[in-house]
Predict the structure.
Amino acid sequence: MIKNQIIFSKINKYFKKNKVSILEIQKYLIKKGLVIIKKKYVEKEGSNIGTISRTLLASLVIIVVFFVAPIVINFANEKMNFSIVHENNSKNKLKSLLKEDNQRLDDVLDEKFLFDDILTFDEQPSDTVRLSALTIEELFKSTNYTLEDVRKNKLVKPITLTLLPKEIVKIENTKKRKDFFIQIILPLVIKENNNIKLDRKKLFRILNKSKNTKKEQKWLVSSFKQYGVVNNDLSTLKIRMDEVPISMTIAQAAKETGWGTSRFAQQGNALFGQWTWSGDGIKPLGADDGATHKVMRFKVLQASIKAYQRNLNTHSSYKGFRSARAELREDGKKLNSLILSEYLDKYAETGKEYVKILQKIIKQNSLTDFDDAKLLPSSIDLDSLI
């Protein structure tokens, strides 16, 4: 009996510690298919029935304790975990800040490490062989990669090209040149969105845990640096670490490069005309004598897309874009490029006119067809063809 009292005492302390009521336990046991029956035992003086009853009752209690206790403890853990998830999840805080348009949210940027991972990626050894347009066309044909198929099946071949072909400038048929350009950059854009999507899922898994491993903590520190987040603000990181619509990305690349024909695209893999005031870059023709800015140069196309996404996800000029994107997320809606492009008026000097051109490109070329496209897994056979 002493042992039973100790067991009950421990369970009672556990319930009090985790704030689990008897009513909650009862409901949970009924849900699990267990029924607790109250039964009165009458002990007659001078008989052995009372002793037998007590023995049976004690045995039953021990069985119930060892059988039910783990279930009840599991229930308590579930309740406690739910409470922790709710406390760690900054969704409510984020939503209130978005509604209030709080200037503290996504307002400060630490640029010190902003592009370090992108520059490191761009410096990695790669086979930067410039394939001819004819070779690329044959590659697309051999893998049955067409935009018509993508629009229908929403699946994209994982063909990763590092450079644009020089001959794209000579393709006179406008539709053919546009389709060719889209085919080249579409897998690269989806790949980068996938990378962000994986990071975002990892972030939410970390947020929903009461304790994080050293590896997770290290990853968080690295993410704060990559996205220029100060004071370890998780709400800001959630806003910045997110995808950019595929259709909007393609439209901007098309506008900035003339569908892959610009000098910046051909000489520096610069798909988005991003400026730099330090390091290697391409000086714009006709720039003022006092102008110090250059267009960022990249060794591979993938790095240009990485830098573009990081720019939209961190620069103060696109805070409105990120806020609108976060609101779409909060409302459970898909990212709409026609809505989000409204906030890119600061991307070019032409302002709202630039936005109208982007939206026109998206509509005329049905680029939203690619927003829900998925990238097929790579294969050894495909790698050997590139």
